[in-house]
Design brief:
By secondary structure, this protein is of the alpha/beta class. The protein contains 23 helices and 13 strands. The strands form four sheets. A four-stranded antiparallel β-sheet has the order 1-2-4-3, covered by helices on one side. It is globular and about 85 Å long. The protein binds one RNA strand through helix 2, helix 8, helix 9, strand 9 and helix 14.
Length: 616
RNA sequence: GCACCGCUAGCUCAGCUGGAUAGAGCAUCGCGCUUCGAACGCGAAGGUCGCAGGUUCGAAUCCUGCGCGGUGCGCCA
């Protein structure tokens, strides 16, 4: 028995029932999934095996009879009470108290029952995805914290993780902004992100001129938005576009002065990105930045490789990669010889798989780019860039998250009517969190009473940011994102602060007990009360939950788990006295349960990138 | 025109390879602190799971069609 199954009742029961099914069907070589699940209702026990019904169906047997055979054959000695058959063929299992205690003891180790995945290859997570010269908006919140969470989870599972912040730092838009700033003779050393953002938008507006693009958009039934967008143009654009193109050529040519100015735009942008990352408790620094410019010398090679492999062809002066199963090809070189973001993305796929040696690449990017990534990934597969040097197949996934809109389905606005930026959201969250914490600290009985304003603000930030991050991470990634500040920064119910609160309560109990941790950690578990049992069973699901989050790329499962655990603790705490209970054995057992819950909550919150204060 | 995503309680959402009576939170109505932290717990009420067929012992879940909403669709990124 591995250290993981030692504290995972489902894995243990799976093993036992697998054998029993072979025996019951009279064929020892049968290896069918017993389908072990937690019981939906405590009256049916702790777990159920649901395999008998489907197995009986495919073999033309009576489901209840087969269930009975399996229940008789299964060896649950030292694990659970005898299995019972119910309903159309459910097999119910109730764990033995000693076994439950032993499993808890096994979980109460350094890794909390989280399995280590032995895999020498890396996992690359494409996250954040900011554009130079643009303010971060609430959409970047998702790309940043979902990516950060997954990176933490894979790291926790023992994988080597590469965080890749694929900056939009190259190409015509940046050149346009740079050219516009230079024309306006703006002092780039005193640049603010707001100046940059304004210049970016103005440059974009000025540069909208694209007759060829418009014709193509109409001819290929492009969406109405695109057609309208391309239609609103004027001839003045020609001049600024030309200026931008000249600037881009000089920049690409290595012009020293231009290169320095370009770097100033990046520095100005990233300063705020890293600031936001610190506030959000996201692990993201300069070492994770690898922008489009990094790949600029590889773009020609990408096109050549496709041409050489016979996978690309010329079409109307451009180079495209056609697909057999759809009309739309992937454009990798424009008719004017320039490259596109598809070219860059192909270079990045190749780099991530073959140079970073990742057999798992996850793109946490807006769902609207689904078609684009499908094309890029398919093209990469055609040419074999989805395989590591030794031939190992890499799994490349676009984790597309939904649009971020207000209740009115329009872009978010602040009270003053400006665009709602990420910093606006974070500032508001920290402010409200601090106000909440400060208000509660006024109570003389509050554990936070008497803390300094600085301390209260630190806690307030942790609480406010937890509210925002939890609200985002707890809903299904792929769904559209309906943004409501008041609900997002809520502190009651199904929220991040609810989980933090449980953690703080436990920290307080443990401190108040005066019992050394070493004594607590050595106490035998004595799980008797229903609320204790429920809490114990919930605890034991932690390891598989973390693994499931990585498999499914769904942070919301971890949120849901932690919410259930905190809830089970609160119910337990209500029903079972800890410090006040007479029996010292029970008291120590409950303290150890508290300690294990605290560690699990802290670990889980950390995987979400949420700080768990001792007091709040 | 084609493709993709979504539709579950008044609101916001869970629902894990099809399983027992579809679950939370918010809001509403009750109950519980001379305090092991009430940012909590217990209970009540609230649902033709978009609609219609189909598959089967069993469907919110799988298949088909339709409706509504959103998004995307070659020289921007």
């Amino acid at each position: 028995m591995s250290s993981t199954t030692a504290c995972d009742p489902i894995a243990l029961l799976d093993e036992r029932f697998r054998k029993a099914i072979g025996v019951a069907l009279g064929d020892e070589s049968v290896d069918a999934d017993p389908i072990i699940k937690p019981s939906g209702n405590p009256q049916f026990g702790d777990f159920q095996a649901n395999a008998a019904m489907s197995l009986a169906k495919s073999r033309g047997m009576n489901p209840r009879e087969l269930a009975q055979k399996i229940a008789t054959a299964v060896d649950l000695r030292g694990v659970a009470h005898p299995a019972e058959v119910a309903g159309p063929g459910f097999i119910n299992v109730r764990l033995d108290l000693d076994a439950l205690g032993a499993m808890l003891g096994s979980m109460d180790s350094a890794n909390l029952g989280v399995p280590l995945l032995a895999d020498r290859w890396g996992v690359t997570v494409d996250l954040c995805g900011v554009n130079v010269a643009k303010q971060m908006h609430v959409g970047h919140l998702r790309a940043t914290i979902i990516g950060d969470c997954l990176a933490r989870v894979f790291t926790r599972l023992g994988r080597v993780v590469h965080r890749e912040n694929h900056l939009g730092d190259w190409g015509l838009p940046i050149a346009m902004t740079l050219a516009a700033l230079r024309r306006a003779k703006v002092d780039l050393d005193r640049l603010t992100l707001e100046d940059l953002n304004v210049a970016y938008r103005r440059a974009q507006a000025e540069g909208r001129h694209d007759e060829a693009g418009l014709a193509a958009a109409i001819a290929t039934h492009a969406g109405p938005h695109r057609v309208i967008e391309l239609s609103i143009q004027n001839d003045d654009a020609r001049a600024s576009i030309d200026d931008a193109k000249r600037t881009l050529l000089k920049l690409q040519g290595g012009d020293e002065e231009l290169r320095r100015d370009w770097q100033k735009l990046i520095d100005c942008t990233m300063k705020e990105v890293f600031h936001a990352a610190r506030i959000m408790n996201v692990t993201l620094g300069p070492e994770h930045s690898r922008g489009e410019s990094f790949f600029r010398d590889r773009l020609g090679g990408v096109v050549e490789a496709f041409l050489k492999a016979g996978l690309a062809k010329e079409d109307k002066g451009a180079i495209v990669v056609p697909f057999s199963d759809r009309e739309r090809p992937l454009l990798i070189r424009k008719s004017d010889g320039g490259f596109l973001y598809a070219t860059t993305d192909l270079a990045a796929v190749r780099f991530r798989v073959q140079e970073l040696e990742s057999n798992r690449v996850i793109y946490v990017v807006d769902a609207r780019q689904r078609d684009h990534f499908k094309d890029v990934f398919d093209a990469a597969a055609l040419i074999g860039w989805d395989r590591l040097p030794d031939g190992t197949q890499a799994h490349i996934t676009h984790l597309g998250f939904g649009a971020v809109l207000g209740k009115d389905k329009r872009p978010l606005k602040t009270r003053s009517g400006e665009n709602f930026t990420l910093m606006d959201l974070l500032d508001e969250a920290v402010e409200r969190g601090t106000a909440e914490v400060t208000a509660r600290a006024q109570d003389p009985n509050a554990p936070t009473h008497g803390l300094s304003a600085k301390e209260l603000r630190e806690i307030g930030q942790a609480v406010g940011i937890a509210a925002v991050k939890y609200a985002d991470l707890s809903s299904e990634v792929t769904r559209d994102y309906v943004f409501d500040l008041d609900r997002m920064i809520a502190f009651e119910g199904d929220t991040g602060p609810y989980i933090q609160y449980a953690h703080a309560r436990i920290s307080s109990i443990l401190a108040k007990s005066g019992v050394p941790i070493s004594t607590i950690a050595a106490a035998p578990f004595r799980v008797a009360e229903p609320a204790e049992r429920q809490l114990a069973l919930t605890l034991l699901r932690y390891g598989t939950t973390v693994r499931d989050v990585a498999d499914a790329l769904e942070p919301s499962r971890l949120c849901s788990y932690l919410q259930t655990l905190a809830n089970a603790f609160n119910a337990f705490y209500q029903a079972c006295p800890v410090l006040k209970v007479e029996d010292s054995g029970v008291r120590l057992s409950r303290l150890r349960l508290c300690h294990l819950v605290r560690r699990t909550l802290a670990d889980g919150l950390d995987l979400l990138g949420i700080v768990a204060p001792e007091r709040m």
